[in-house]
Amino acid sequence: MVASDLYLEQADTLAIIVPCTTRNRGWPNHVKLTGKNLDLPGDTYAMTEQPRTVTRERLFEVAGRIDVGAMREVDSWLRDFLALS
Q: Measuring CA to CA, which of 2, 14, 56, 85 is 20 to 30 A from 8?
């Protein structure tokens, strides 16, 4: 999820997510996910051009947490995509 704590508190049935893919297309805005104890099927990339809101009922288990560097890169691309910076 890429939403703030306040959003998650207020919209307690929804989550904002960034879909992922295992296909490396070489696109700079597809961020390779890195972090300790990630339970992913292999190299996985966040597709930052496709944020979406889903019901939390569609989320089942946590695959881990990405490291700070990867999150900063995702955040930077989301800010660019949404014209927030």
A: 85
What is the residue type of 26? G
Closest CA to 17 of 44, 43, 49, 54: 54
Neighbours of 55 (CB within 10 A): 9
What is the spatial distance between Cα 14 and Cα 22, in angstroms, rounded to a whole number? 25
Query: Any idea where the domains of the chain sit in the sequence?
Result: 5-81
CATH code matching the domain that covers 5-81, chosen among 2.60.200.40, 3.40.50.300, 2.30.30.110, 2.40.160.90: 2.30.30.110
Task: Render pLDDT for 8-56 as a digit per residue (tens, 0 to 9).
Answer: 788 888 888 999 999 999 999 999 999 988 999 899 999 999 999 999 9
pLDDT in tens, 46-75: 999 999 999 999 988 888 899 999 999 999
Integer Cα distance of 58 and 54 in angstroms: 7
